[in-house]
């Protein structure tokens, strides 16, 4: 029967993946709004079972099954130690994405998010659900500061959603976009800064815009190894190094003028709206400071703080975070082999953004737009390496 063939199993696997993807995207969009949904854990179990079934139904060579078993075993051990199941869910999601049509999938994710986020903004403007703006102290000493949120609850959440849309648009259309389209993109970035006043996020947006222009209009650089090497140095090494430094100096008492480089620490922390000090002072456990880091995290370490790379290490542990960094290096190498500088641009921008914001370090799979790309690229790379070794044997 057709569904017993390799192609038939692949189609069934892809349908299961797309069903899980739709559910995760809808859940993420609801979470971004000010609506409350209390059955998230059950939905996570459902999408995990769908992607796990997709992996098992699909055809794999014997060596691929060994790799799959090792990944599932390691992430399951992480789950049993930390009580957090995200690595297990993310792993099955990525492996289930092996044979999808990546271009169509990314367009589907883009337009689904664009529709969902637009609906959130429209409902808030109409006064149906969510606030249009919030007046509070955002860490700059002004208790009456007004920033627009357009139904997303916080200006940084609003910017994060627009930022994700910008990155997806660049990946899908950036290589063929006209100059006037980039002008519109620049206007959107500047307009979002006027609404949210997120300074650091704005700078990352501008830097991403400039790099995208270079990649678009100097296409020859896509084949230059140096750009992939530089990205590999910045992502994740420099991002992790800076985050580690922040975790080390976070316990430094305020106004400790005799501490070495105190003025520099304060200047950087002020630029980041006290994110460094909050690693130590933001909660009773001092979550995020270097003293709380372990090889594997404590069970259910749920404390939240903004610095994403620190959260990655604190939530899951040093060993899982190190393996994720290695995986990112492999991904950059695969992008070099494919001469795909656009995916590298997205990874670079997201990595720098994750230094200050933990948007992409989340229980919500739908937030991480890189997962389908990584699934296709890494799984195809693994398959080629296995087939290459088999042919040698």
UniProtKB/TrEMBL annotation:
Keyword field contains Plastid: no
Lineage: superkingdom: Bacteria
Alphabetical UniProt keywords: Membrane, Transmembrane, Transmembrane helix
Transmembrane region(s): 12-30, 65-82, 108-134, 154-172, 179-195, 201-219, 226-248, 313-334, 341-365
Protein name in the entry: Polysaccharide biosynthesis protein
Phylogenetic placement of the source organism: Bacteria, Bacillati, Bacillota, Clostridia, Lachnospirales
């Amino acid at each position: 029967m057709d569904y017993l063939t390799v192609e038939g199993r692949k189609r069934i696997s892809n349908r299961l993946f797309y069903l899980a993807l739709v559910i995760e995207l809808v859940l993420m969009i609801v979470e971004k709004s000010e609506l409350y949904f209390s059955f998230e854990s059950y939905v996570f179990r459902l999408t995990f079972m769908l992607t796990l079934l997709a992996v098992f139904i699909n055809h794999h060579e014997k060596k691929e099954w060994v790799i799959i078993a090792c990944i599932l075993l390691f992430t399951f051990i992480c789950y049993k130690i930390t009580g957090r199941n995200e690595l297990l869910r993310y792993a099955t999601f990525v492996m289930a994405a092996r044979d999808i049509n990546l271009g169509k999938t990314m367009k589907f994710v883009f337009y689904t998010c664009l529709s969902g986020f637009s609906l959130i903004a429209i409902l808030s403007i109409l006064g149906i659900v969510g606030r249009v703006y919030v007046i509070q102290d955002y860490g700059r000493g002004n208790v009456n500061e007004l920033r627009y949120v357009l139904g997303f609850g916080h200006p940084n959440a609003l910017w994060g959603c627009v930022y994700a849309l910008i990155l997806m648009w660049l990946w899908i259309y950036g290589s063929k976009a006209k100059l006037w389209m980039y002008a519109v993109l620049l206007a959107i970035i500047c307009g979002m800064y006027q609404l949210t006043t997120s300074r650091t996020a704005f700078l990352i947006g501008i830097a991403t815009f400039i790099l995208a222009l270079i990649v678009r209009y100097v296409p020859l650089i896509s084949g230059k190894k140096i750009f992939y090497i530089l990205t590999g140095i910045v992502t994740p090494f420099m991002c992790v190094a800076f985050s580690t430094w922040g975790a080390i100096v976070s316990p430094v008492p305020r106004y400790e003028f005799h501490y070495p480089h105190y003025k520099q620490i304060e200047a950087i922390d002020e630029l980041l709206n006290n994110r460094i000090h909050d690693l130590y002072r933001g909660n009773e456990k001092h979550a995020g400071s270097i003293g709380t880091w372990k090889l594997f995290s404590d069970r259910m370490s749920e404390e939240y703080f903004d610095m994403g790379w620190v959260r990655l290490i604190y939530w899951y542990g040093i060993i899982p975070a190190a393996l994720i960094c290695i995986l990112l290096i492999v991904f950059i190498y695969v992008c070099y082999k494919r001469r795909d500088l656009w995916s590298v641009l997205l990874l670079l921008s997201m990595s720098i953004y994750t230094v200050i914001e933990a948007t992409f370090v989340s229980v919500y799979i739908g937030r991480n737009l890189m997962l389908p790309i990584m699934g296709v690229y890494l799984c195809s790379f693994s398959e080629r390496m296995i087939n290459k070794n088999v042919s040698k044997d």
